[in-house]
């Protein structure tokens, strides 16, 4: 798709449902996406790229090297390895949008959070890649809702956290393109707030069970 | 205050802000409250009881023995000791409303959850007192909002979890008396859902910081 000059080069790390859903929306919006995976010949990534003119598939390093914005949509327990493969030099100065949750499903349902309380995956990534500008966002909703918030009626909230205000503005702009009204974005402060955003997942999973759908969200209402 | 025959005998465990706020609202609604504390001569409990005609102060055992409904409003890290002092026999068959959060503030802010992932305080209590009918509720909002939900405008959600449906109906009735519309109550299922309700606290604390007030809540919005 042709697009005016605010098109962004985006590196998508991860080829699963979340990565594909976000990458497809980005491509639809005219951004130039390279989808990266551990094996550069990942069939899912190649198939996805073939279906999206202008998009490409490659390694984690290819995706990170391409992107001004890099999205971590890998499984939370694989994220640090994926970023290591991407390489610190290719992540330096980039806006790194982290949508992952550090959930371990290996022990069955419900999954357990592998990082809690005084640390979070978002902080681990920021510490590991200090020259990257990490923003945690979107991890509190299902991938469909991430990129089509209108699927949930009325007002509802998306959180952002990160240490770099300019990087948060880039992400807020992207959220706006996805359809999130500016008033729905709640900035929780520095990347440390990723702790609460990630520890919310067990409640999200309980709600999904009680509601019988993943198509829901929470609205923060102030007194 | 005189009250018709649906007045309940309530044992309140805990004399802090949460215990006093709930106890005062219960007394105002005509329920017969005994506020229990570790030391039966707790000055805060005695002062509270003196200000509420018909209410009494006593030990944890006094409160538990009195109540058809027992409310655990102690600090989460002190809850198991408080219930041990109350005594299993006095808790047997009682509806035990657990509003506590297992937060340890001893290491400074933010506090850490002492129970996570595959267990929760609510479950610990139900396991420790299998003859009690534990219902987790109200731990996700500030004490003012617990008993005056109209302080937050519009619709917003209160969660309940517990293994005994009849006990959850008793708690739902009480929530209704506090002012929670029936449609605002989201039943998450068995007491195991206390995990998510408790692990939500770090996000609640981040939101309180970002919003600059504890007078807020979340509304669950379904797509």
Describe this structure in a few short sentences.
2 copies of one chain form a homodimer. Chain A has 223 residues and is α/β, with parallel strands linked by helices. The first copy, chain A, is built from 10 helices and 11 strands.
Outline the structure in words.
The structure is a homodimer of 223-residue chains. Chain A is an alpha/beta fold. Chain A has a single domain (9-211), classed as Rossmann fold, CATH 3.40.50. Helices cover 37% and strands 21% of the residues of chain A. The first copy, chain A, contains 10 helices and 11 strands. The first copy, chain A, has helices at residues 17-28, 43-50, 60-66, 79-86, 88-91, 121-128, 143-147, 165-178, 194-199, 201-211, and strands spanning 9-13, 32-37, 56-59, 69-72, 95-98, 103-104, 112-113, 133-137, 158-162, 185-187, 216-222. In chain A, strands 3-2-1-4-5-8-9-10 form an 8-stranded mixed β-sheet, with helices on both faces. In chain A, strands 6-7 form a two-stranded antiparallel sheet. In chain A, helix 3 packs across helix 4. Chain A is globular, with a radius of gyration of 16 Å. The termini of chain A are far apart.
């Amino acid at each position: 798709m042709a697009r005016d000059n605010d098109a962004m080069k985006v590196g998508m790390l991860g080829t699963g449902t979340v990565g594909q859903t976000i990458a497809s929306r980005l491509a639809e919006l005219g951004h130039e996406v390279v989808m990266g995976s551990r094996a550069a010949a990942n069939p899912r990534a190649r198939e996805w790229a073939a279906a999206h003119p202008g998009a490409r598939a490659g390694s984690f390093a290819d995706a990170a090297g391409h992107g001004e914005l890099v999205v971590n949509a890998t499984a939370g327990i694989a994220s640090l390895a994926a970023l290591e493969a991407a390489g610190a030099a290719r992540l330096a100065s980039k806006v790194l949008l982290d949508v992952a949750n550090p959930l371990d499903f290996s022990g069955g349902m419900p999954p357990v959070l592998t990082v809690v309380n005084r640390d979070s995956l978002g902080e681990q990534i920021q510490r590991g890649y200090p020259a990257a500008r990490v923003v945690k966002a979107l991890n509190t909703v299902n991938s469909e809702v991430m990129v089509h918030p209108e699927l949930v009626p009325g007002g509802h909230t998306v959180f952002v956290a990160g240490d770099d205000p300019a990087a948060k503005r880039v992400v807020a702009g992207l959220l706006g393109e996805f359809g999130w009204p500016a008033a729905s974005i709640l900035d929780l402060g520095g990347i440390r707030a990723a702790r609460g955003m990630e520890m919310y997942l067990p409640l999200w999973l309980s709600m999904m069970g009680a509601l019988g759908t993943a198509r829901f969200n929470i609205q923060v209402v102030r007194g």
